[in-house]
């Protein structure tokens, strides 16, 4: 394959990744980007080119030694549920965006410690990035069958590195707030994780089943090679100790590598995603390792006696059999593994570089006076340039230093350097006494021991410098031999370096922390980190601060970085959360912490503290005072919890009261309406009586016939008035419960016949035909006969009233079932409006237009009927008859409860 | 002869009003609800209308609103005669453009006086 063709494939591939990143960024928080599987796959950024190529190299040359790098993480991952969750919680509430922020904030927001962590990380990771570039470059040359050029400008891999640097610096700095989630990068990395695993397994299957005849075949052929046995047993206690240290080393790495911190903590969307990662990520690592062995030994068999770099077996094997598709796919897999590592690491590092080194130690002064736009631009620019320079610098490191070493040993050096953060890091979340000075002293000591036992000897290794330092020790002292420090000669260089550096690091961290008291701020953050679960909801409460500060000053600082709009919104939310009066002028501890948090994502914890401190006047607090306040705040939190519960109960009661009150208001309104209606109803007959009486009184010439008519009117209106009063009193009795029902066993057929008889005169007057439809003429039930007669009388009167003047028909249906009897009174009048079906039974009812009269009668009759039927445990309702006319039905239970 | 329209759903009240106004030389039209009144007004053009408020189908307020839309009825006087005697009912009636609001029960004599007074004003 030509260089050009390969470059073309790479560009297309990069372009696709770019598209995925772009798409995910645009999509935002959808189920495609925000789910536990994407999260887990993004963690697989752990498997870099080192895994992809280096494992095979190690497996081929020294057997089982490649395994600890995966065994370590697999051992510790179950503990993520507790530890990683804690770290994520701490980072979320404090808006932490890197491991440097994390450590420096815990140790009293220490600027120096943040910078130190950053420097150690850069020291550790740059060779690691160089390793990736080396892998890309070497594999590129293998696939394109070219060789590395000594002039870097004519070497194509230089341009690949530049393209990568541009890609990473563009996509890694989309947000000025570094604690924001980078959906695009995460999704692209997750995608690459799928691809690299897929291509690697593809290669495994190809080698195992196509080149060879399965696992047994490879084993059979490999076992006759020389050194097979020694390479594939752990072999004795010293080797086991080596193994153990390598496990510990990678266990640290899975927490401390900036790219792992970035993916597992900063980019974590939901704590719950950890639950999936806990089983899926180890599974991923296991899958990756299935074929390492077959490929490594397959290579050993095929290239026995030839001098080839075993790191590149995975490409050489398919190339050996001239299979170009597999070669290129494998190359793309390795490329994926390398670039995800490079991009994520450089983002993490550049955030640290800007937030923990450059801004607090240089740019802060300039940012302090800039406007929001220029500040945002400047910060993003610093990070962009940072990412670009880090990658380019790594490229130079690759060209100058690491050309000679294999992937595995470079990776190991990185791991050991990064491991120096472990005591301070794990101490941060587990041990309240751990202090800033302890952390700094331990880290520096550990780093120097690393340098002495690993970096210096390795550096000497590349140059052809006099190596008596390695063979004879410093100043010729045996005990100071870098690879056998203090006479321990059974450890390999890497485990040895780890052992001594971590030992001294830990001891010094512990000793200094215990011997010298930290300042109050450290103690304060120690409390917040170790007991994060207690402070998770109101963590600003846990921050201790005394002094004077004006909200307006703080606001000004915030505006410079967040802008007018966001500052306002944030402060509003804050005062809502803590129920603070908006007109308050003085800021309290909570606001100070809140403001620091807001700035942290932009410029890092240390700078945030410096900026806020520059506009407020802080008073010193002594350590005992802090401890006392912390003790009190713990009690307060418990009291607060109780208060919240009580206030929740109060809220519920208030809601109930409010509802009861609303009901009362409605009832009251209904009562008023009822009185209105009643008084209107009472006045109407009085009006008629008064008018007629006045005419009779004043007019002597009135004809006899008219006089009689007026007198008749007075009589009937007086009767009406009387009926009305009785009805009102009836209703009142039912309402107040004074009305008693006396049930006896009666025949409803008989009751109905009796009622019809009472109304015979009216029925005959209007010439109405009345039918009673029933299967039997004895239908018995328990009821108060007088009351039911009242109901029937009312229903029949209405029916008579609404029957047409000619051919009026009233039909009374009687039905029964096991439990109820049902009576229906139907007329052939004009029927009832459907909307009034329920309302006609309501004594308070007035149709929606208050001035329209009710459809039936005085309006009280049906209300009384309803009361009576309800007192019988029955139901009453209205329907319209099929053809025309109204139909009122009611039921009464056949038996009483007793 | 002056014409009067009586709108009320209570037959006995209507009977008294009809008798009284006929005796006072009015030509009397009778409607039992707002709709009937509006139907009558399509053809007849009374000088004065006596209007109840609580009636089936179309209430008195609504009826008056319709009347006020008719150009040819702009000189017709309207008296509300209602048992609704609350302040807000009266205000509403007058604000709709009624010339007078009398509450039930009422004095027949006074009603006749008021009717005459209103018509003389012309």
Provide the fold topology.
The complex is a heterodimer of chains A (898) and B (122).
Chain A: H1 3-27, H2 36-43, H3 49-62, H4 68-76, H5 80-94, H6 99-106, H7 111-143, H8 156-171, H9 183-211, H10 215-222, H11 228-231, H12 236-256, H13 258-266, H14 273-290, H15 292-302, H16 313-320, H17 324-369, H18 372-402, H19 407-419, H20 422-430, H21 436-462, H22 468-472, H23 493-515, H24 520-530, H25 532-535, E1 547-548, H26 551-577, H27 589-603, H28 605-615, E2 617-618, H29 623-698, H30 704-736, E3 744-747, H31 748-758, H32 760-765, E4 769-773, E5 780-783, H33 785-802, E6 809-816, E7 820-827, H34 861-871, E8 875-880, E9 886-893
Parallel strand pairs in A: 4-6
Antiparallel strand pairs in A: 1-2, 3-5, 6-7, 7-9, 8-9
Chain B: E1 2-7, H1 11-23, E2 26-31, H2 34-43, E3 48-51, H3 60-69, E4 77-82, H4 87-95, E5 100-103, H5 108-121
Parallel strand pairs in B: 1-2, 1-3, 3-4, 4-5
Helix pairs in contact in B: 2-3
Description:
- Chain A: This is histidine kinase.
- Chain A: InterPro entries: HATPase_C_sf (IPR036890), HATPase_dom (IPR003594), His_kinase_dom (IPR005467), HisK_dim/P_dom (IPR003661), HisK_dim/P_sf (IPR036097), Na/Glc_symporter_sf (IPR038377), Na/solute_symporter (IPR001734), Sig_transdc_His_kin-like_C (IPR004358).
- The complex is a heterodimer of chains A (898) and B (122).
- Chain A has 898 residues and is mainly alpha-helical.
- Chain A folds into 4 domains: 3-419, Sodium/glucose cotransporter, CATH 1.20.1730; 537-613, no CATH class; 625-735, Orthogonal Bundle (Helix Hairpins); 740-893, Histidine kinase-like ATPase, C-terminal domain (Heat Shock Protein 90).
- Chain A contains 34 helices and 9 strands.
- Chain A has a 5-stranded mixed sheet. A two-stranded antiparallel sheet of chain A has the order 1-2.
- The longest helix of chain A has 76 residues, at 623-698.
- The N and C termini of chain A lie far apart (100 Å).
- The relative contact order of chain A is 0.08.
- With 122 residues, chain B is an alpha/beta fold.
- Chain B has one domain: Response regulator (Rossmann fold).
- Helices cover 46% and strands 21% of the residues of chain B.
- Chain B has 5 helices and 5 strands; from the N terminus they run βαβαβαβαβα.
- Chain B has helices at residues 11-23, 34-43, 60-69, 87-95, 108-121, and strands at 2-7, 26-31, 48-51, 77-82, 100-103.
- In chain B, strands 2-1-3-4-5 form a 5-stranded parallel sheet, sandwiched between helices.
- In chain B, α1 (11-23) links the parallel β1 and β2 (26-31).
- In chain B, α2 (34-43) runs parallel beside α3.
- Chain B is globular.
- The mean pLDDT of chain B is 91.
């Amino acid at each position: 394959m030509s260089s050009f063709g390969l470059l073309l494939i790479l560009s297309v591939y990069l372009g696709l990744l770019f598209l995925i990143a772009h798409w995910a960024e645009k999509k935002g928080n959808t189920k495609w980007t925000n789910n536990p599987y994407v999260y887990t796959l993004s963690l697989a950024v752990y498997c870099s080119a080192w895994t992809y190529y280096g494992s095979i190299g190690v497996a081929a040359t020294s057997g089982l030694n490649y395994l600890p790098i995966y065994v370590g993480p697999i051992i510790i991952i179950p503990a993520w549920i507790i530890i990683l969750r804690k770290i994520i919680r701490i980072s979320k509430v404090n808006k932490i965006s890197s491991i440097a922020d994390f450590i420096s904030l815990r140790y009293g927001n220490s600027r120096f410690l943040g910078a130190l962590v950053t420097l150690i990380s850069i020291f550790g990771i740059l060779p690691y990035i160089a390793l990736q570039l080396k892998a890309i470059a070497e594999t590129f040359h293998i696939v394109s069958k070219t060789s590395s050029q000594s002039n870097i400008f004519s070497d194509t891999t230089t341009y690949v590195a530049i393209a990568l640097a541009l890609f990473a610096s563009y996509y890694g700095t989309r947000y000025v707030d570094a604690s924001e989630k980078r959906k695009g990068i995460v999704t692209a990395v997750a995608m690459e994780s799928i691809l690299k695993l897929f291509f690697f397994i593809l290669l495994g299957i190809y080698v195992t089943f196509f080149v060879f005849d399965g696992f047994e075949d490879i084993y059979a052929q490999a076992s006759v090679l020389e050194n097979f046995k020694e390479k594939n047993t752990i072999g004795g206690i010293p080797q086991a100790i080596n193994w153990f240290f390598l496990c510990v080393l990678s266990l640290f790495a899975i927490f401390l590598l900036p790219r792992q911190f970035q993916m597992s903590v900063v980019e974590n969307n939901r704590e719950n995603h950890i639950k999936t990662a806990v089983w899926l990520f180890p599974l991923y690592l296991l899958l990756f390792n299935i074929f390492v062995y077959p490929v490594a030994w397959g290579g050993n068999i095929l290239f026995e006696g030839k001098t080839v770099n075993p790191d590149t077996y995975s490409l050489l094997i398919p190339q050996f059999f001239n299979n170009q598709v597999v070669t290129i796919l494998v190359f793309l897999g390795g490329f994926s593994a390398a670039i995800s590592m490079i991009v994520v690491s450089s983002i993490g590092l550049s955030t640290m570089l800007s937030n923990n080194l450059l801004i607090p130690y240089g740019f802060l002064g300039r940012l302090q006076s800039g406007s929001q736009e220029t500040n945002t631009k400047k910060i993003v620019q610093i990070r962009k340039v940072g990412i670009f320079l880090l990658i380019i610098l790594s490229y130079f490191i690759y060209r100058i230093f690491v050309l000679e070493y294999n992937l595995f040993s470079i990776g190991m050096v990185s791991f050991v350097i990064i491991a120096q953060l472990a005591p301070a890091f794990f101490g941060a979340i587990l041990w309240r006494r751990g202090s800033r000075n302890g952390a700094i002293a331990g880290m520096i000591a550990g780093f120097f021991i690393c340098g002495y036992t690993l970096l210096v000897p390795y550096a000497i290794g590349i140059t052809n410098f006099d190596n008596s330092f390695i063979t004879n020790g410093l100043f010729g002292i045996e005990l100071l031999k870098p690879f056998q420090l203090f006479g321990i000669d059974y450890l390999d260089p890497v485990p040895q370096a780890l052992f001594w550096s971590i030992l001294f690091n830990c001891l010094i961290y512990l000793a200094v922390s215990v011997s010298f008291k930290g300042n109050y701020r450290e103690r304060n953050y120690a409390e917040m980190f170790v007991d994060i679960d207690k402070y998770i909801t109101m963590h600003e409460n846990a921050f201790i601060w005394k002094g004077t500060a004006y909200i307006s000053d703080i606001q000004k600082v915030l505006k410079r970085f967040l802008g007018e709009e966001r500052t306002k919104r944030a402060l509003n939310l804050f005062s809502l959360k803590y129920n603070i009066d908006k007109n308050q002028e003085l800021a309290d501890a909570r606001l100070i912490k809140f403001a620091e948090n807001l700035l942290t994502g932009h410029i890092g914890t240390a700078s945030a503290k410096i900026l806020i401190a520059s506009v407020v006047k802080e008073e010193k607090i002594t350590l005992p005072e802090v401890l006392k306040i912390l003790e009190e705040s713990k009690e307060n939190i418990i009291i607060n919890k109780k208060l919240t519960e009580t206030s929740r109960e109060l809220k519920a009661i208030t809601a109930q009261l409010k509802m009861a009150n609303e009901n009362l208001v409605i009832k009251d309104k209904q009562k008023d309406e009822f009185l209105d209606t009643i008084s209107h109803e009472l006045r109407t007959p009085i009006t008629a009586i008064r008018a007629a009486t006045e005419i009779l009184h004043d007019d002597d010439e009135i004809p006899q016939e008219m006089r009689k008519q007026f007198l008749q009117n007075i009589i009937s209106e007086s009767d009406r008035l009387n009926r009305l009063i009785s009805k009102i009193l009836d209703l009142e009795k039912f309402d107040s419960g004074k009305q008693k029902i006396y049930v006896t066993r009666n025949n409803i057929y008989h009751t109905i016949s009796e009622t019809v008889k009472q109304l015979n005169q009216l029925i005959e007057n209007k010439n109405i035909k009345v039918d009673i439809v029933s299967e039997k003429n004895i239908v018995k039930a328990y009821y108060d006969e007088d009351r039911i007669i009242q109901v029937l009388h009312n229903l029949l009167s209405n029916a008579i009233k609404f029957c047409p003047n000619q051919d009026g028909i009233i039909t009374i249906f009687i039905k029964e079932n096991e439990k109820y009897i049902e009576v229906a009174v139907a007329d052939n009048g004009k029927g009832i409006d459907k909307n009034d079906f329920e309302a006609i039974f309501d004594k308070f009812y007035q149709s929606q237009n208050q001035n329209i009269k009710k459809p039936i009668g005085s309006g009280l009759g049906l209300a009384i009927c309803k009361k009576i039927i309800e007192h019988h445990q029955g139901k009453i309702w209205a329907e319209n008859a099929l053809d025309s006319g109204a139909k009122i039905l009611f039921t009464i239970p056949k038996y009483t409860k007793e | 002869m002056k014409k009067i329209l009586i709108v009320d759903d209570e037959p006995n009240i209507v009977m008294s009003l009809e008798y009284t106004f006929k005796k006072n030389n009015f030509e009397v039209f009778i409607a039992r609800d707002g709709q009937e009144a509006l139907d009558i007004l399509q053809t007849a053009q009374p000088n004065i209308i006596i209007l109840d408020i609580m009636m089936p189908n179309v209430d008195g307020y609504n009826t008056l609103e319709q009347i006020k839309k008719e150009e040819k009825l702009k000189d017709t006087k309207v008296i509300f005669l209602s048992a609704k005697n609350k302040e807000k009912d009266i205000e509403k009636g007058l604000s709709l453009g009624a010339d007078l609001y009398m509450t039930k029960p009422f004095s027949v004599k006074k009603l006749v006086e008021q009717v005459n007074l209103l018509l003389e004003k012309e």
